[in-house]
Write a sequence for this structure.
């Protein structure tokens, strides 16, 4: 607005000056100032729309209350196959999930692998922190037997393996998108390992990087601003839009409690052009509440039941 007011003042000045043919350089300078001000104003006005385009190109049109949300399969299809393994992602894809959610950590030799917990203890036959183990050790672990003997010998996947699969699907009529959570803190250099891989597989339009840690999200922006980012936050701050905008996020991913606590929160976030996703909803009542508030995406451990429920509505 200040720029528009300035342009207006300059315009009046220009009218007076154009009647004086002895001062053409001032006219040219005034015209340039007006054009510059108009351009800057347009950029200011348009910038929320640009973020809206990014959100809608990845998540579809921003929803209204009652609209169907997209379904993101949490850690793959983790009720059917061991979480964050290739069989779990394949199960989600077969079920028809158009989004999968996963968690990434770096091995001690800097390779991104898919694992939720900080240690391998719960979901493999090994022990220790992911960040203390080399890939050559991690890839020998059994990440399936804890879930069921049927999955004995299933390995911890690398991010590269998942992105390669998504790259194959990107060329089909049913591309699958991914919500990729950077677990813990990542430096810009570390985030750059992931962003470079996403570019290598030409998936920058099909993935979003997310983190509970805003500094990590900022470091992902430093690594590669062109890859969309979403902020994960359990409880919404008083100004969620301002908070997310600080980090250039295209979406806020929050809990059911957070959106229930403030019934206008989804609406306010939408008006800024950002999408709202909710984690991790597994019951019909929670799906119903999220849909009635107009969320854009639901992260769930039960992709098939949620898709069926959505289709039946
Ligand atoms: O990424 C959304 C949701 O998965 C966050 O919780 O603990 O399952 O990674 P968590
Ligand atoms: Ca996660």
């Amino acid at each position: 607005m200040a720029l528009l007011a300035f342009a207006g003042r300059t315009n009046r000045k220009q009218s007076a000056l154009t009647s004086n043919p002895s001062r053409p350089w001032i006219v040219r300078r005034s015209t340039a100032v007006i054009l510059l001000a108009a351009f800057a104003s347009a950029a200011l006005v348009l910038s929320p729309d640009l973020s809206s385009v990014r959100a809608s190109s990845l998540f579809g049109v921003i929803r209204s209350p009652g609209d169907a949300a997209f379904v993101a399969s949490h850690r793959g299809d983790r009720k059917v196959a061991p979480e964050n393994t290739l069989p779990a992602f394949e199960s989600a894809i077969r079920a028809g999930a158009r989004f999968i959610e996963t968690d990434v950590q770096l091995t001690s030799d800097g390779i991104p692998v898919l694992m939720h917990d900080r240690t391998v203890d719960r979901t493999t036959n090994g022990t220790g922190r992911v960040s203390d183990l080399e890939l050559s050790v991690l890839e020998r672990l059994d990440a399936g037997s804890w879930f069921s003997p049927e999955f004995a010998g299933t390995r911890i996947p690398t991010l590269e393996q998942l992105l390669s699969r998504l790259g194959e699907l990107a060329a089909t009529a049913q591309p699958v998108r991914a919500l990729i959570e950077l677990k813990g803190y990542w430096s810009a250099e570390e985030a750059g390992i992931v962003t470079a891989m996403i570019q290598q597989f030409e998936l920058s339009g099909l993935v979003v990087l997310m983190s509970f840690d805003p500094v990590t999200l900022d470091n992902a922006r430093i690594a590669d601003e062109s890859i969309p980012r979403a902020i994960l936050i359990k409880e919404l701050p008083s100004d969620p839009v301002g908070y997310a905008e600080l980090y250039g996020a295209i979406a806020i991913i929050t809990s059911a409690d957070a959106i229930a606590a403030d019934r206008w929160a989804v609406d306010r976030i939408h008006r800024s052009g950002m999408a709202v996703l909710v984690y991790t909803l597994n019951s019909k009542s929670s799906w119903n509440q999220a849909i009635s508030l107009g969320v854009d995406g639901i992260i769930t451990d039960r992709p098939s039941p949620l898709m069926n429920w959505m289709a039946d509505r």
